[in-house]
Amino acid sequence: LYQSGPCRILDERATCLSQIELASSHEIAGNLPLATAHYTKALQIDAKNARGLSGMARVAEQEGRYEEALKYLDEVLPLDPDSPDLHRAKERIMVKLEILSKLRALT
């Protein structure tokens, strides 16, 4: 049965939040591939979900995918511009990218 209107929107929000909670649990447990899968599902439902975007940024950083982490942070910062955690994460990732760039220049 296809839902429309407010019920469909509430169902999508509940599904999105469920995916975020599953992703967060997997992230805490260190199962980053499953965390990524659930954050991705959440973002398919709501592409501007701040928790999903920041979660993807954290997972990407933990996996060493710094450019991708920066992309997610650039998407989430306008949604939560006053978050000191997001700003610190962006600064930290930019430092890591700078270090990697300098190391590559040495080889």
Tell me how many strands there are: 0
Strand content: under 5%
- Give the averaged pLDDT, no decimals: 92
Distance between the termini: 60 Å
Low-confidence stretches: none
Number of helices: 5
Radius of gyration: 16 Å
| Structural class label | mainly alpha
Could you walk me through the main structural features you see in this protein, from its secondary elements to its overall organization?
- The chain has about 110 residues and is mainly α.
- It is built from 5 helices and no strands.
- It has helices at about 5-30, 30-45, 50-60, 65-75, 85-105.
- Helix 1 packs parallel to helix 3, helix 2 (about 30-45) runs antiparallel to helix 3 (about 50-60) and helix 4 packs antiparallel against helix 5.
- It starts with a helix and ends with a helix.
Topology:
Elements: H1 5-29, H2 32-45, H3 50-62, H4 66-76, H5 84-106
List keywords for this structure.
single chain, 107 residues, mainly alpha, 80% helix, 0% strand, globular
Concise synopsis of the structure shown:
With 107 residues, the protein is an all-alpha fold.
